C-alpha cells in the first residue's frame, strides 16, 4: 500500500487504499469543522510519502512526508493561518507515519518483524502535543493506517493484479527468472527484482508519475519520477 517498491511505478493495493483514505478522511474533517480544531491524519508511509502525498493532492490539504523534514514552527504557523483563514475555523494536515520535522525522530516500540521493522509511535499524536504547547489550539487526531487494510479491491487493482498474474505465468513458461511484473512509464513491463539493500523507492518532490498513468497503462503522463 505504500507504493514504495523499486523498479515499478505502481504496487497492487495503492489506489484502493488511496480511495479508502479519500473517503474516510471526510468524517473526521467534518468533526474538526464542528470542533473548530486542527485535524491531523496519520496514514501509511514508513519510508516513502506516496500515500500522504496523493491523498493530500486529491483533497487539497497539506501533508508531511518522510523524504522532507519540515520546520516545526513553520508547520504550526501554516496550520494556524489555515484555520484563521477558513470561514469554518478548522485546518487539516496529512502525515505519513514516518514523517519527521527538524530535530525530531519518530519513536519505535515492540519487537522487530521479519524485515527488521518495529512499530512506530504516532507522529500525529506528537504533532498534536506540539501544536497545543505552542499555540493552545484544539486538535483532533485520526489514525487512518490499519483500518484501510479491509474491504474489496477496486476495479483498477483487480485489473492490475490479473494482468500481473498473467504476465508472471508467461514469464515462467518462457523459463525466465529474477524478474517481477511492473508498470513503468505507464506501461506494463517485466523488470529486474530490486536489490533489498537499495531500500524502498522514494518520492522525488519535483518529478512524479501521475496516478492516471496506472489506469491508462499505454499513456505517458508524468509529472514526477521516483528513485
What structural category do the secondary elements indicate? alpha/beta
Shape descriptor reads elongated
Total number of distinct structural domains: 2
Instruction: Please write the CATH class name of the largest domain.
Output: Alpha Beta
CATH architecture of the largest domain: 3-Layer(aba) Sandwich
Span of the ends, CA to CA: 17 Å
CATH topology group of the largest domain? Rossmann fold
Low-pLDDT stretches are 209-227
Largest sheet: 4 strands, parallel
Q: Treating each run of at least 4 consecutive H or I residues as one helix, how many helices?
A: 7
- Average pLDDT metric: 79
Q: What's the count of strands?
A: 10
Summarize the amount of helix as a percent range.
Answer: 25-40%
Fold blueprint:
Blueprint: H1 14-24, H2 26-35, E1 38-43, H3 50-59, E2 62-64, H4 72-85, E3 91-96, E4 108-109, E5 119-120, H5 123-135, E6 139-143, H6 155-173, E7 179-184, E8 187-192, E9 203-209, H7 212-215, E10 222-226
Helix pairs in contact: 1-3, 4-5
How do you describe this structure in short?
With 227 residues, the chain is α/β, with parallel strands linked by helices.
Amino acid at each position: 500500500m505504500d507504493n514504495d517498491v523499486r523498479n515499478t511505478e505502481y504496487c497492487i493495493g495503492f489506489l484502493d487504499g488511496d480511495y479508502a483514505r479519500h473517503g474516510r478522511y471526510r468524517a473526521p474533517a467534518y468533526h474538526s469543522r464542528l470542533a473548530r480544531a486542527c485535524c491531523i491524519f496519520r496514514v501509511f508511509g514508513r519510508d516513502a510519502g506516496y500515500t500522504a502525498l496523493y491523498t493530500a493532492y486529491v483533497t487539497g490539504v497539506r501533508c508531511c512526508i518522510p523524504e522532507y523534514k519540515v520546520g516545526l514552527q513553520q508547520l504550526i504557523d501554516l496550520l494556524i493561518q489555515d484555520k484563521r483563514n477558513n470561514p469554518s475555523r478548522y485546518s487539516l494536515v496529512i502525515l505519513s507515519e514516518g514523517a519527521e520535522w527538524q530535530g525530531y525522530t519518530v519513536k519505535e516500540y515492540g519487537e522487530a518483524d521479519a524485515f527488521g521493522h518495529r512499530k512506530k509511535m504516532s507522529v500525529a499524536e506528537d504533532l498534536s502535543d506540539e501544536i497545543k504547547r505552542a499555540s493552545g489550539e484544539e486538535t483532533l487526531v485520526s489514525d487512518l493506517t490499519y483500518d484501510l487494510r479491509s474491504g474489496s479491491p477496486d476495479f483498477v487493482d483487480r485489473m492490475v493484479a490479473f494482468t500481473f498474474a498473467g504476465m508472471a505465468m508467461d514469464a515462467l513458461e518462457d523459463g525466465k527468472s529474477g524478474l517481477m511484473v511492473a508498470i513503468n512509464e505507464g506501461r506494463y513491463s517485466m523488470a529486474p527484482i530490486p536489490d533489498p539493500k537499495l531500500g524502498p523507492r522514494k518520492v522525488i518532490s519535483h518529478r512524479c508519475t501521475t496516478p492516471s498513468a496506472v489506469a491508462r497503462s499505454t499513456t505517458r503522463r508524468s509529472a514526477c519520477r521516483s528513485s
